[in-house]
Amino acid sequence: MLNDISELRKQIEQDITAIASNGGPESFRLKHLVRKGTIAQLFDRLREVPKEEKREVGQALNELRTLAEGALAEAQASVAAAQPTERVDVTLPGRTLYRGHPHPIMAAKERMEEIFVRMGFAIATGPIVEDDYHNFEALNFTPDHPARDMQDTFFVKVGDRDDIVLRTHTSPVQIRVMQSQKPPIRAIMPGRVYRNEAVSARALAEFHQVEGLYIDRGVTMAQLKGTLFEFAKAYYSADVQFRFRPSYFPFTEPSAEIDISCFLCGGAGCKICKGSGWLEIGGCGMVHPNVLRNCGIDPEIYSGYAFGMGIERTEMLRMGLDDIRVLYENDVRLLEQA
Ligand code: PHE
């Protein structure tokens, strides 16, 4: 027995010197110091030792255990000391990386485009700096037409020309599309427009519109209304109410303003809709025969409808904003809602 103890002692002393490379203090503990470990096994055999030797054997075993426990404690302490004080908690959730996304106005433009493209409209664009002909004249505004006053225009000096403007609406793109394509034409024309206007909660000097144009044989105002109603249902909600209100534009006849039911009060009347229950999102009408003629399209054969909606205004109503200017302030709290 004493022999076995001294054998084990040699083994343990060896293990102590190699404790770090042999799997650390924990494997040392599991080998020697647990209930089924080497030392406990020898303790179990203490029963078989003759009475007169028990004391000596017991003492040797106790010494061995003290030695092993001491070495273990030391090894554990040095492992703990080598441990970095800051630890990585791999169970923590990761940090959110914020990715950019389109500005609400661009997101709204894309949403509108998507709805109309689904209905079969193509997307067309035209210049922002226009001439009087495309912005006014071809659209049936005569030089002294009082409707020119509806559009407060920014003029641009280009050489000695005095007919260059920042387009006041996207309707000149209608002209360019009709001049370059033959019917049937079905296109929307999104873009930036300018008006020399005081900026207010309801109006901006620089904003965006989406124009729509459909020219074919037998196009009717009922189709115009149906198309815009479907748009309103897709853009706002399936239960939106919709109406046309008679209006005037030189380039359409008959003409209408497009109203949707107020999203805030549902039509009962509130501050946003000024008590009327309705909100205006744009204008529309049947393309005036003079406009078709100006673009080389025979009004006896073809008819068409056109519409124009403000992107900011349309989106402001969807987001429930009561001031259009916040769309240009770039406050992240608003941008995040897009
Ligand atoms: N261009 C008109 C505006 O800016 C809107 C409109 C477009 C009306 C097409 C009728 C047809 O107010």
Give an account of the 3D structure.
- With 338 residues, this protein is an alpha+beta fold.
- The protein has two domains: 2-79; 104-335, BirA Bifunctional Protein, domain 2, CATH 3.30.930.10.
- The chain has eleven helices and nine strands.
- The strands form two sheets. Strands 1-4-5-9-8-7-6 form a seven-stranded mixed sheet, sandwiched between helices.
- Bound molecules: phenylalanine (PHE).
- Residues 169, 171, 211, 249, 252, 255, 283-285, 306-308 line the site of phenylalanine (PHE).
- Phenylalanine binds next to strand 7, strand 8 and strand 9.
List the SSEs and their pairings.
Blueprint: H1 2-17, H2 24-32, H3 38-44, H4 51-82, H5 104-118, E1 122-123, E2 129-131, H6 132-135, E3 164-166, H7 171-180, E4 185-194, E5 206-216, H8 221-235, E6 242-249, E7 252-261, E8 278-287, H9 289-294, E9 303-310, H10 311-319, H11 332-335
Parallel strand pairs: 1-4
Antiparallel strand pairs: 2-3, 4-5, 5-9, 6-7, 7-8, 8-9
Helix pairs in contact: 1-4, 2-4, 5-10
The structure holds phenylalanine.
Indicate the overall shape.
Answer: rod-shaped
User: What's the order of the H and E elements?
Assistant: HHHHHEEHEHEEHEEEHEHH
Rounded to the nearest angstrom, the radius of gyration is: 42 Å
Largest sheet: 7 strands, mixed
CATH superfamily of the largest domain: Bira Bifunctional Protein, Domain 2
Hetero compounds: phenylalanine
Briefly note the structural class of the backbone. alpha+beta
Put simply, the count of helices is 11
Key attributes of the depicted protein:
single chain, alpha+beta, BirA Bifunctional Protein, domain 2, 2 domains, 11 helices, 9 strands, 19% strand, rod-shaped, binds phenylalanine
